[in-house]
Amino acid sequence: MTTITIPITNELNDFIDNQVKLGEASSKADLVRRAIQNMKEDVFVQHILKAKGEAKAGKLLKGDLDKLAKGFK
């Protein structure tokens, strides 16, 4: 596992602290990891929806769907 250090605003820090206090995450690190995972999943869904729209528009799709899916693990 890799550790990163990033500066955040006081507002974001307060939000993270509040979410942990509310029980939405077990720790700051847990909350940030989950947020990044959610973003990763959102990007994957966006790619799928874009491909679906292109297919619907009759555009030829090229590529390996398995490779695309592996890129989001």
Structure write-up:
The chain is mainly α. The chain has one domain. The protein is built from three helices and no strands. The longest helix is centred in the middle third of the chain and has 29 residues, at 28-56. The chain is elongated.
SS content category: mainly alpha
Per DSSP, the total helix count is 3
Low-pLDDT runs of 5+ residues are none
Order of helices and strands: HHH
Level of helix content? 55-70%
Overall mean pLDDT score?
Answer: 89
**C-alpha-based Rg, rounded:** 18 Å
In this structure, how is the largest beta sheet organized?
none
Span between termini: 15 Å
How many domains is the backbone divided into? 1
Quaternary state of this entry equals single chain
Indicate the overall shape: elongated
Strand content: under 5%
Task: Please provide the count of β strands.
Answer: 0
